[in-house]
Amino acid sequence: MIKTALFLRTIPAVLVMSAAAYGLTAHAQTQSGTNEGASSSSSNGVVQKVEKATKKAVNATERTAKKVGRATSKTASRAAGAVRHTGEKIGKKLPKGSARPPVDEQGRPGNKAP
């Protein structure tokens, strides 16, 4: 579900960028050298539109990355809580053990410390 939602959120940004790139390529190929004044003002408009679309795509990507980070953190916290809860449930069902076995000074079990 998360992968699908993330994929669906990134599709518009990718489409805008690809359309802008295609439009710039087509515009650059059809531009004539005789109308320098008129063509430069229209190309500035295209550049501004592409810059605006790029800024929107960057902002959308940043927002999506933050949302994914928060969702991942929340999921990890919930998973850790579930593991702790399960461990506590299992621990309650285990029989009480005897005292700890004796260990030596190096921490090896079974040997009494001198």
Automatic annotation (TrEMBL):
Keywords: Signal. Residues 28-114 are annotated as: Disordered. Residues 28-38 have a biased composition (Polar residues). Residues 1-28 form the signal peptide. This is Cell envelope biogenesis protein TolA.
